[in-house]
Amino acid sequence: MKTKMPEILSFISEEAVSRKMISEEIAVHFGYDKHHFSRKFKEINGFSVAEFLSSLKVEKAIFELDEEKRILDLQETSDFENSGSFTNTFKKYTGSSPREYKTEMKE
């Protein structure tokens, strides 16, 4: 699996997020059992599939913040379940809430 990791990461970045795939679907796509896939993914990368997907969603939100989109719209288009989940995950990866981040960008 280690040799396939660049392909797996690329697939997740380019396809899985836009298709709203979950870890199990990604594992099946590459022919792995979901438990084995999740365990090896974290062992190789140091972060879980879910953490990687969340970081990609936050990156997408940051990019769209640059485009002057409203924060509420970002939460909806970034595929987070609710505003609390979006705000908490955003803050985990950036150190700021979406509103704080947007304000800091304007300064």
TrEMBL record:
Signal peptide: none annotated. GO terms for molecular function: DNA-binding transcription factor activity; sequence-specific DNA binding. Residues 6-104 form the HTH araC/xylS-type domain. It comes from the Bacteria. Keywords: DNA-binding, Transcription, Transcription regulation. Pfam families: HTH_18. This is HTH araC/xylS-type domain-containing protein. It comes from Candidatus Enterococcus palustris.
